[in-house]
Specification:
By secondary structure, this protein is an alpha/beta fold. Helices cover 47% and strands 12% of the residues. The chain is built from twelve helices and nine strands. It has a six-stranded parallel β-sheet with strand order 3-2-1-4-5-6. The longest helix is centred in the middle third of the chain and has 28 residues. 34% of the residues are buried. The structure holds NADP nicotinamide-adenine-dinucleotide phosphate. NADP nicotinamide-adenine-dinucleotide phosphate (NAP) binds next to helix 1 and strand 7.
Length: 314
C-alpha cells in the first residue's frame, strides 16, 4: 500500500461529515493516525465505540498537537472559537481546513487566529443527509459529489494540491473558487431550497383548516419530500442563514419576484406561463441526472411503501 497523504489527521467535530471523513481516511489509507476531538463525552464515546479513530480527545488542542492536517467539522458558528483555542498548539507547516457550508464567514472567523506558519485551505463537500452525529457517517457520502476549495489569495499551491488529493481520495470531484462565489452559488442550490422546505413544512404545521394528521396522512402527494430536507440539523442551518445572510437575501429577492409572476399567472389563468416554466424545469432535472448527481429511477429509487405505487401524485 502506498504512503498515506498525512501522518496525523485531526478531526475536530465527529458528526455526519467528520465520521464520514474518518471512515474514508481509514479505508482509503489517507492518514496514518486519526485523532478525533469533540466537546461532549457522549459523542466521543460513540465515536470510540464505532472505532472511527486512533485517539480520542475532549480537548481539541490535544488532538491537533503534531497533526499535519486539521479539519474542523463543526457548525459554522463555532469555527472561530475553536480556531482560537487550537491556534497556539498547531504544528508549523500544518494544513488547517474545515467543511463549513458557508465560506466567507468561516474565513473571516478563522483566518485572524491562525499563525502564519500554517496553511489555510477551507473546503466544503457538497454532500450530506438530514442525519447528524457520529453514527450517521458512511464511506460513500462523498463519492462522485463535488467538494469546493476556497483558498484565500496567496495560499501555498502545494497545500491546496494536498487538500485536493485528500478529497479525491474520499471519492470526491474537486473544484476551486473564491469564497464569495461559493456563497452565492450555494445560496441558490442549497440554502434557499432548505429555507423553502423549512417554511412550507412550518406553514403546513400551522394550518387551521387542514389538520396536522391530514398533512401527515396525505404527505406522499409531494409534501414528504420537503419534510426530509426540513428535518436537517437546526443548529447547522441556523448558522448557515446567519452567516450567509447577504447571498441568501439576494437569492430570496429573486425567488420572491419569480413567485409573484407565478401567482399572477395562476390568478389570470395564464396557462402558457405555467406550462413553459414547468417544461424548462423538467429539462433541468434531466441535466441533474445526466451529471450523475441523482438517480433516474422513479421517485428517487425509493422502495414503494406498502400499498403505494412510486411516483408523484397530484
Ligand atoms: P453534526 O452531525 O451535527 O456534528 C456536529 C459536530 O460538531 C459534533 O461533533 C458536535 O459535537 C460538534 N459541535 C456542535 N456544536 C459545537 C460547538 N458549539 N462547539 C464545538 N463543537 C460543536 O454536523 P455535520 O452535519 O457533520 O456538520 C458539520 C459541518 O459540516 C457544518 O459546518 C456544516 O455546515 C457542514 N456540512 C454539513 C453537511 C450536511 O448535510 N450535514 C454537508 C456539508 C457540509 P458534540 O456532539 O460533542 O456536541
Amino acid at each position: 500500500m502506498s504512503e498515506p497523504l498525512f501522518e496525523r489527521l485531526a478531526l475536530i467535530g465527529i458528526g455526519l461529515i467528520g465520521s464520514s471523513l474518518a471512515l474514508n481516511a481509514r479505508t482509503n489509507g489517507l492518514a496514518r493516525h486519526i485523532a478525533i476531538a469533540t466537546r461532549r463525552k457522549e459523542t466521543l464515546d460513540k465515536a470510540e465505540e464505532l472505532g472511527l479513530g486512533d485517539s480520542y480527545h475532549l480537548e481539541a488542542s490535544e488532538a491537533v498537537a503534531d497533526a499535519d492536517f486539521v479539519i474542523l467539522c463543526v457548525p459554522v458558528g463555532s469555527c472561530g472559537a475553536i480556531t482560537r483555542e487550537i491556534a497556539p498548539h498547531l504544528k508549523a507547516g500544518a494544513i488547517v481546513s474545515d467543511v463549513g457550508s458557508v465560506k466567507g464567514a468561516v474565513i473571516a472567523q478563522m483566518a485572524p487566529h491562525l499563525p502564519s506558519s500554517v496553511h489555510f485551505v477551507p473546503a466544503h463537500p457538497l454532500a450530506g443527509t438530514e442525519q447528524s452525529g457520529p453514527q450517521a457517517g458512511f464511506l460513500e457520502l462523498f463519492t462522485n459529489r463535488w467538494s469546493i476549495l476556497t483558498p484565500p489569495e496567496g495560499t501555498d499551491p502545494a497545500a491546496v494540491t494536498r487538500v485536493e488529493a485528500f478529497w479525491q481520495g474520499c471519492g470526491s470531484n474537486v473544484e476551486t473558487m473564491t469564497a464569495e462565489h461559493h456563497d452565492l452559488v450555494l445560496a441558490i442550490v442549497s440554502h434557499v431550497p432548505h429555507l423553502i422546505a423549512y417554511n412550507i413544512v412550518g406553514t403546513a404545521a400551522d394550518l387551521e383548516t387542514v389538520t396536522q394528521s391530514e398533512v401527515v396522512k396525505f404527505s406522499a402527494s409531494g409534501f414528504r419530500d420537503f419534510t426530509r430536507i426540513a428535518a436537517s440539523d437546526p443548529t447547522m442551518w441556523r448558522d448557515v442563514f446567519l452567516t450567509n445572510r447577504d447571498a441568501v437575501l439576494e437569492m430570496l429577492a429573486r425567488f420572491s419576484e419569480d413567485l409573484a409572476t407565478l401567482q399572477r399567472a395562476i390568478r389570470w389563468g395564464d396557462g402558457d406561463t405555467l406550462f413553459d416554466l414547468f417544461t424548462r424545469t423538467r429539462a433541468i432535472r434531466r441535466n441533474v441526472i445526466e451529471a450523475g448527481q441523482d438517480t433516474a429511477k422513479p421517485n428517487f429509487g425509493r422502495e414503494p411503501a406498502s400499498g403505494e405505487r412510486a411516483g408523484t401524485k397530484g
